[in-house]
Amino acid sequence: MCMVNALKRVTASGFRSLNKVDVVFGPFSVFVGPNGSGKSNLLQVLSFVRDTARFDTGQAIALRGGFQHILRQDGRSRKVSLTIEAVVSDHASAKASDRYTLELEETKPGDIDRTEVLLYKRVSGQGRRQKIQAKGSEVSIGEGPQRAGTLDQFLSLASDDVSALGTMARLNEERLGSGPRDFFDFLSTVRYLDPIVEAARRPARMSNAALHDDASNLASALRALHEDHPDGFDALQRDLAQCLPGFEALEFGVIGGAATSIVVQLREKGVMSPIDLSDASFGTVRLLALLTALHDPLPPRLTIIEEVDHGLHPYALDVLVERMREASERTQIIAGSHSPTLVNQLHPGEIIICDRDPETGASIIPAYDRDRLKILLDKTDLKAGELWFSGALNGVPK
Ligand SMILES: Nc1ncnc2c1ncn2[C@@H]1O[C@H](COP(=O)(O)OP(=O)(O)O)[C@@H](O)[C@H]1O
Ligand SMILES: [Mg+2]
């Protein structure tokens, strides 16, 4: 089983601005493109599918304000179709990856049909992948798509709103092997980091929970890193020292009472008393949240970072790229960015350029072929970000 770099490919159609996109991933990938080109939409394919597995389909749709906020509003699309290919189950390999498809179709107003298909290797060696298909509340298993007509019905779900993947993960291991559970674990633990700086500034209730997606427990997650993984904490402080002039150290304060809360403070040269995170700059708090995730010694298999450059100085971007690349040995990293400075630090295989068809509004991802990008970069003195900003790679407003 491959531990890192599990996600291989995502396809999406009928999802917001995504109308037939097909994206291949390496250990570290950055979506680069102008505002509105569909970077976040692509990242949200993963968080949406994660939420259907974590909670259930109905709830994942409701969290986004309803099906009309998911379905592509072009007057034609009726169906959302999302596929995630990854190497996560015991017998999966690059040649026989696990493949999960989720389709949602509005048949009548307010009535959404859900179809899920999971293909995975049940046993090692040659042979077809096991297929599990859930349509509405009916689940069937079979040996492969070619035998779909002879599927043997064996289970009903409680309703057609629930996630078949979530249900399979809890049941039937004897019959289905660990594939569904492995895939569920991979999907449901995806970290989609989009810090809310105002929340991250506040004191946090002390706990050993991992950093939340919105970084609202930043103080507590940092404290846990300090206590349990001092090497990682020291490395994080060295990163901060590279990015923040005058930074000396992070310190913790405790707010007492029955429910103990933690505050983070920054000790800076020339400042007599340490600065509470509530008084630190926006970029400092955001940087701290990202670095806390990147120094997490036990991260989930996939970490997604929204607008990684937001609020950060170019020096900090250089440090972040280094840290993302290093962290990608423990957790696959996918980020979104607008910043040519950040892109300058990337290798061609790490860049996925995004563009948008000005007529149809459909995202074009990737908008430039990776191999061509490599050839082009070899031929020029320009760095990748400069080349992109010049317009030579697409993915800039016309
Ligand atoms: N349901 C939808 N149908 C069609 N297009 C949508 C839908 N929802 C959002 N969009 C388009 O997606 C764009 C936002 O894409 P997004 O991925 O957030 O951009 P960015 O690349 O800046 O992250 C919006 O400008 C809008 O045009
Ligand atoms: Mg965005």
Please outline the helices and strands:
Blueprint: E1 7-15, E2 18-24, E3 28-32, H1 39-54, H2 57-63, E4 79-86, E5 98-108, E6 111-120, E7 130-135, E8 138-142, E9 152-156, H3 164-170, H4 173-176, H5 179-188, E10 191-193, H6 197-201, E11 204-205, H7 218-228, H8 230-243, E12 247-255, E13 261-268, E14 275-276, H9 282-294, E15 302-305, H10 314-327, E16 332-337, H11 340-344, E17 351-353, E18 355-356, E19 363-364, H12 370-379, H13 384-390
Parallel strand pairs: 3-16, 3-17, 10-15, 15-16
Antiparallel strand pairs: 1-2, 1-4, 4-5, 5-6, 6-7, 7-8, 8-9, 11-13, 12-13, 13-14, 18-19
Helix pairs in contact: 1-2, 3-5, 7-8, 8-9, 9-10
Organism: Brevibacterium ammoniilyticum
InterPro entries: ATPase_AAA_core (IPR003959), P-loop_NTPase (IPR027417), RecF-like (IPR014555)
Domain ATPase AAA-type core: 28-344
